[in-house]
Design a protein that fits this description.
Number of domains: 1
Order of helices and strands: HHH
Shape: rod-shaped
Strand content: under 5%
Helix content: 55-70%
Radius of gyration: 24 Å
């Protein structure tokens, strides 16, 4: 006795292996799409919460709940000039970095 228990499954064929690999790939793609959707919803929720705060009324940054991370980082210092960063934009970036 070698400790190996025989299985009742037939040996796999190249076609079955290909099918299984495609199924795994589809499952991975669905999982990635689901994560991307959840990340976008989280980002949108954070932006909505920050834009609802009192200090956001003075902000003139072009931020919307649909803003992407690239758009947010492309805003630079935001609606403020000089060395200061817009407090609303800063709060959104900090919360998204968590």
């Amino acid at each position: 006795m070698t400790g190996h228990t025989p299985t009742n499954q037939p040996p796999s064929t190249p076609a079955a292996d290909e099918r299984a690999a495609r199924a795994r790939l589809r499952a991975l793609e669905r999982a990635r799409a689901g994560k991307a959707k959840a990340d976008a919803e989280r980002r949108s929720q954070i932006i909505r919460e920050e834009l609802a705060r009192e200090r956001a009324k003075q902000c003139s940054c072009p931020i919307t709940p649909a803003s992407t991370l690239g758009e947010l980082s492309g805003l630079g210092a935001g609606c403020t000039a000089g060395r200061w960063v817009c407090p609303t934009l800063d709060a959104i970036r900090r919360r998204l970095a968590r």
